[in-house]
Write a structure and sequence with these properties.
A hairpin with a 3-residue loop joins strand 1 and strand 2. This protein is mainly alpha-helical and 245 residues long. It contains twelve helices and two strands; from the N terminus they run αααααααααββααα. The longest helix has 25 residues. Helix content is 57%, strand content 3%. The chain has a two-stranded antiparallel ribbon. The protein has three domains: 67 residues, 434 Repressor (Amino-terminal Domain) (Orthogonal Bundle); 99 residues, Arc Repressor Mutant, subunit A, CATH 1.10.10; 74 residues.
Length: 245
């Protein structure tokens, strides 16, 4: 993650913590709301404009630059096959790592998983040996990877858990107030299909950005959210049967 991206993420986090919406920001700096969204999504934020935003919102430049000057906390979002194999082989270790990538402290991880200090230390030592975290004093740890994690398509995590995750995720009726399921099927040109896939890629990027923005919020203010997207050339089998007749 580049320094510009880190600063913009810090800015978005600061805006959210102050309850400042894009519409409110746009009014304060005399821009349209779409312009503000475009600037923050594309990373085209000049220093004069950043200073203007800070002045209009009461956010200091130091507040935004501090996470950058402290050095990057992550290096990669894709793990090696060895790292994934170690996590896939030990579900509790995988759960520990997953919770940490979502901003939980080691102590919070231990409370969530019902582990004592000795067990927590064993997990942290293993993660440190795998170069996934940097072990620090008093059972502290810093992530060495970029989040959210992109699991390898042919890796052991997906081979071990993908089928189970897919089945459990789709088991819901998706009728609850906080659930949603949309299914559409239509005949499209190749150009339209490509546009649709680019939009899905943008949605994935938005999901990752929101997850990064919320990663350091207190656990009580978050809940686990899953998003599944799929798009492929497909014909309902019923039509195949009708054509054969």
């Amino acid at each position: 993650m580049g320094d510009t991206t880190r600063i913009i993420l810090a800015l978005k986090r600061s805006l959210r913590s102050r309850g400042i919406t894009y519409a409110m920001l746009a009014k304060r700096i005399s821009l349209s709301e779409p312009s503000v969204k475009r600037i923050l999504s594309r990373g085209s934020l000049s220093l004069p404009r950043l200073e203007r935003i800070c002045e209009a919102t009461g956010i200091s430049l130091e507040e935004l630059v501090r996470p950058v000057s402290a050095g990057p906390a992550e290096t990669s979002s894709t793990l090696t096959a060895v790292q994934e194999s170690a996590l896939a082989a030990e579900p509790q270790l995988l759960a520990c790592f997953y919770l940490m990538t979502n901003g939980h402290t080691p102590r919070e991880v231990a409370d969530t998983l019902g582990a004592d200090e000795k067990q927590l230390r064993r997990w942290l030592v293993k993660l440190d040996n795998l170069h996934l975290v940097e072990l620090r004093a008093r059972l502290g740890a810093r992530l060495r990877v970029h989040v959210p994690i992109s699991w390898r398509e042919d890796g052991p995590i997906r081979r071990t858990y993908e089928k189970q995750v897919r089945e459990e995720f789709m088991r819901s009726s998706f009728t609850a107030q906080d659930e949603v399921l949309h299914f559409r099927s239509a005949e499209m040109s190749e150009a339209s299909r490509m546009v649709l896939q680019r939009k899905l890629a943008r949605l994935t990027a938005d999901f990752n950005e929101l997850a990064e923005l919320d990663r350091h919020l207190p656990s009580r203010e978050k809940r686990s959210v899953a998003l599944m997207m799929a798009c492929r050339p497909w014909v309902f089998s019923m039509f195949d049967g009708l054509r054969k007749r």
